[in-house]
Design goal:
The longest helix has 20 residues, at about 5-20. The chain has a domain at about 50-85. The protein is about 40% helix and about 0% strand. The termini are far apart. It has two helices and no strands. The chain is mainly α.
Amino acid sequence: MTNKSILTFWTLVFLLLWVPISCDKVDPQFKSVNEPIGDTSSITTTTETVRKVLLEEFAGHKCKFCPRAARGAQLIKELHDDELI
């Protein structure tokens, strides 16, 4: 036998042994519920949502410090002080 035929033989043996054990039965994702549930079309909250934004400044591989970006970040911080992290 040549090397190519030996390699082909072992590849086929591997595939024939691997395919039957690689399959798995998947159970249903959801189970049915027979109980009635409440109205979920709207949400009522008692607290006010506070939204904050994270501003990340990063530099490129050629410019380690970018003064224009720092000025822009400072301007955004002045405009949206409480909402900016």
